[in-house]
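User: My advisor, Dr. K., asked me to get a structural model of this assembly before our group meeting. I'm new to this, so sorry if the format is off. These are the inputs:
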Amino acid sequence: MASAALSRLETLLAARRLDGTVAKADAVRMAGPQAPTGIAALDDVLHGGWRRGEVSEVIGGPSSGRTGVVFATLAAATARGEIVGVVDAFDRLDPATLAATGVDVSRVLWVRGPALTLPGRPAMVASAVTQAVRALDLIVRAGGFGVIVLDVAGAPARAFQGLASATWLRLAHTIAGQPSAGLLVGDAPMGRSARGVSVRLTSARRWTGTSPQSRRLAGLDIRAHIEHAQRPIAATPGWTLRAAG
Amino acid sequence: MICCLVEASASDARQGRLAEIARACSPRVELHGDHAAVFDASGLSRVIGAPPEIAREVQALAAEQGLTVRIALAPTRVAAWLLAHERPGMTVIEGTATAAANALAGLPTGALASLPGSARRRGALATAAVSHARSRAVMAAVKDDAITTLVRWGLRTLGQVAALPRADVRTRLGDEGVRLHQAACGEDADPLVPAGDTAPFFERVVLEWPIEGLEPLTFVLARICDALSVSLERADRGAVTVTTTLRLVSRDTHQRTLNLPAPMRESKTLRTLIVLDLESHPPGAGIDVVTVAVGVVPGRIVQGSLLDRALPAPEHLATLTARLRALMGESRVGAPAVLDSHDARGAGMQPFAVTEPPRRSSASSLHPSEPAAGPRAVVRRFRLPIAARVEVERGGPVRVVASSSAIPPSDIVNRAGPWHSSGRWWALDRTNWDRDEWDIELAGGGCYRLARDRKTGNWEIEGEID
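Assistant: The format is fine. Below is the predicted structure of the whole assembly, which you can bring to the meeting.
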């Protein structure tokens, strides 16, 4: 009975050219509802990781551990055999540290924006951000990527003023139902209307050694605060990112 | 099954006879000068018999022509090529690509020197309008360098070369190294592209009025690609190269060649790829005549797996990367590549292609979400380093004033270093380096990598530790 009803519903959706939504929902179910971050403490709080079919945010100031969290997510995704996309708005990605984090670099589609020194000329930075958002949109529409990252960390707030007001909403609509987890990396919240989780990171630096000769940066002690989520999350998980050497 | 024929001593009197023999056996023949020919022997077993019978038949044909040839039949083109060049008489390898790899394992590393240039590079070099003789010399020099390096590493056989991890080969020897590694594994890097006198797949439209701009051209290309797609569908072929030739009103010819990552015949995909390429390389004048020719291989048969993760089809990926290249720039899209250098500032790129996911061991599959290396703080690299004025006390930096307002002037509260690194000291150009590096934490927040050039004494902030 249920399958007959489902079949009827699918037929009706197909007649109205909405059948893609059913197939997409199925794709999400096949891939698993979450893309694990690769960090157990964060996965626990996020109930398994970044939700697929949504755009989430990793935000924080310089050296807050944003990139470390993103690389851990990419490493976990490529270890599962997924392909991932990274839109690097200002060309900041370092392939050597990416590989050292355990990411299979051959499964990363790297889209490099112009190498700008920030804050830079406002028009050039705004143009780079616009291009990066368009590149992200193309990758999302192509489908098949497990995790898609837009890295605009360091961009001043005015660089986003040139974007259409519905940009993030449209992005959220495009990714909805797809087996991809979208991740925005920046200094401040960008796409709150995009329905995902916003995780703000803060960090304390951990140094070892007492003498100038033995002094080393051992890593970053990270504290995460969930700024925005569909369901309120009160926990503030913490973990340590080891220094990449 | 691919067959390769090699004649050791080609003479002018016998020119073309090898091609005749090959064409007598198959319509899909690839010629390499006068001394070698490769043809697709698939299907001959229904007419002649088992692969050894086919080899004997070809040998008899050659004998009738008065030629002494070395023949190799193997599952892949590269395996047939290497075996025919290295083993005298007749060699037949039946089975899968694994059997081909096993057959190649005993051949000396120097056998790789006989490999012809790849179709992709031939196309790229032709596009760059490099003279043929010069490009061949350059390709041969690059290949020989890579083979010499493999031999210097103590690798005597192709089996030893095949045992190397491919990612490490790419890091050290680049694309040429990967191509040699694929050959040693018996894997074809390029498909067999038949010589021109097989059934051509091309469409030509002579326009009544010249067209300016790419938008009207899109409609013409749509018509051409639809017709090509139907022809390819009927012949069960897929396009691997697409050559677009535009005759311009200025009597010049604008030609672009695209090498596709996989055989494809979708009209929409072909049209999109051509248009995106022409957007990046537009013709200089109005267009009179449009010709599109495609190089073909047999159609791709894909068996999806119920257990493996679905990945984007090569057609979709090719379209996506072409769109991204048109948006961001030709050299701005690919997969990251780790360079073989102690200079951490460099960033390499390699072509992005979907491959089979790596097989996980049972131990690692217990915790699939936990990568082996664990989460780490990483470096965000400033490709244009930020110049800085640095106050130094007792040999160490104590205060930084950066030229960018993103990093406000600040005291250094913690530092580690210096780490001295230098390289390419023998090079007279600007690629040599000699530097001291520091990890610093600023009072205003943020950890950075600071470097001092030992020759000039200039300080730069190279990256943010994040």
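One thing worth pointing out at the meeting: Chain B has a mean pLDDT of 82.

User: Perfect, thanks a lot.
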